Amino acid sequence: MIDAIILAAGQGTRMKSNKAKVLHQLGGKSLLQHVVDAIKPLSSSINIVIGNDAELVKNSINNHSINWVLQKKQLGTGHAVQQATSNINGEATCVILYGDVPLFSTNTIKSLISKSESTGFSLLSVILDNPTGYGRIIRDKNKLIKAIVEDKDTNRQEQKIDEINTGIMAIQGSLLKKYITQLETDNSQGELYLTDIVKIAVKDSVTISSLVCDNVSEVMGINDKNQLAEAERIYQQQQAKDMMSNGLTIKDPSRFDCRGNLIFGKDCSVDINVVFEGENELGENVLIAPNCIIKNAKIGDHAEIKANTIIDNAVIGSHATVGPFARIRPETKVGNNARIGNFVEVKKSSIDDGSKVPHLSYVGDSTIGQNVNVGAGVITCNYDGVNKHQTIIKNGAFIGSDTQLIAPVTVGENATIGAGSTITQDVPGEKLTLSRKKQTTIPNWKRKK
Length: 449
Ligand code: UD1
Ligand code: MG
What we know:
By secondary structure, the protein is of the alpha/beta class. The protein folds into 2 domains: 2-219, Alpha-Beta Complex (Spore Coat Polysaccharide Biosynthesis Protein SpsA, Chain A); 238-433, Hexapeptide repeat proteins (UDP N-Acetylglucosamine Acyltransferase, domain 1). Helix content is 17%, strand content 32%. The chain has 8 helices and 39 strands. Strands 13, 15, 17, 18, 20, 21, 23, 24, 26, 27, 29, 30, 33 and 36 form a 14-stranded parallel β-sheet that branches. Strands 5-4-1-6-10-7-11 form a 7-stranded mixed β-sheet, sandwiched between helices. It has a 7-stranded parallel β-sheet with strand order 12-14-16-19-22-25-28, with helices on one face. β2 and β3 form a beta hairpin. The model has no long low-confidence stretch (mean pLDDT 97). It binds uridine-diphosphate-N-acetylglucosamine (UD1) and magnesium ion. Uridine-diphosphate-N-acetylglucosamine is lined by residues 7-10, 21-22, 49, 71, 74-77, 79-80, 98-101, 134-135, 148, 150, 164-167, 193-195, 221, 223.
């Protein structure tokens, strides 16, 4: 049985933010959500200690079977654990995790747990080139762990130690309950340090086993914005690597961002500076050009998204092309072989198979049939200042350039609308409709000199 405790009550002063540290986002989800997701497969119960922004932290987590524990005052990591120990089963192995150490893998924790089985207590450590800021692992001549000394409490000798405490430990419930009450505040910060239970356990003849993590980036702590940015890049590069292994072409993995989940078929290619947000799905052979933002979209086989396009909560058909510089807003469906061109905004509309909106248009609250041609600069005037109205354009219609369609309005099948028209009434199918004054020329007119 594995009972987890996650510490998430701190404010995170080094972040210099109004929001609690564990709420900061990494790859589109909070630091705390990463920790919860990684420990979930192993744990029989998850206890999260909250304090700063307690309600916000609670609501940010997408998992309902959590025991929330309130730490009213943040008196240190040891004090935080004290608040949760009554929930821990003495027979269980308790895994303690920090909400600001989010990138560990489930497998690393599995190994740490098995290390704790013989001794009852194991620590996850790591060797760092620059250990500044972290608690140092103190070992005796026989390499056995004696204590952890916090950075602020180190002497010169201890400062040189490069093996640090990741903050992650596995300890038998009964041992934790026994030692956690013995902490004292005799340190430079006047706090109850969780890390002091190591020397207390050693005094009680417990051997502390350790797992030295061979992947430094898994266990980095995030205390300030520099570390947050560093962790973001590590996370994105890891995702890019995994996706490339699964066949995605990524032009430059150092300029790839996926803040959510991405599913893709064979032979998809993603150019530089593309940001994926939420849940996205690409069919086969989808090409995404530079500088696109793609959020909660489903994009069909052989579709091409050209540079600088934004797609938000929309479905794009197969063989469709969108962009460059297009903005596809929520609840839009672009059909197969359809084409949305440059400087076109589409909102809550469906554009059926084979239709084209190639240049400089606004299409909102519209249903456009198949093989419709919408000329340059066509605007659906969907808003009268109070209500939104629908525009319906039936199959095969041709809308001349610079037409305004004042909704509600319906354009019939195979209708043609002359360029520059202001359409205020329904347009019959098969005919030419235009609302344009006859052009005149004044014969004797001369330009003033
Ligand atoms: C801690 C460890 C340090 C380790 C480092 C690894 C202690 C005393 N030090 O230092 O040995 O090298 O993490 O990243 O444990 N928290 C609470 N309540 C509190 C205080 C903190 O819930 O009263 C939470 C914070 O929200 C945070 C976590 O505990 O998620 C760690 O606290 P933090 O202040 O970041 O500790 P570090 O200085 O990083
Ligand atoms: Mg920290």
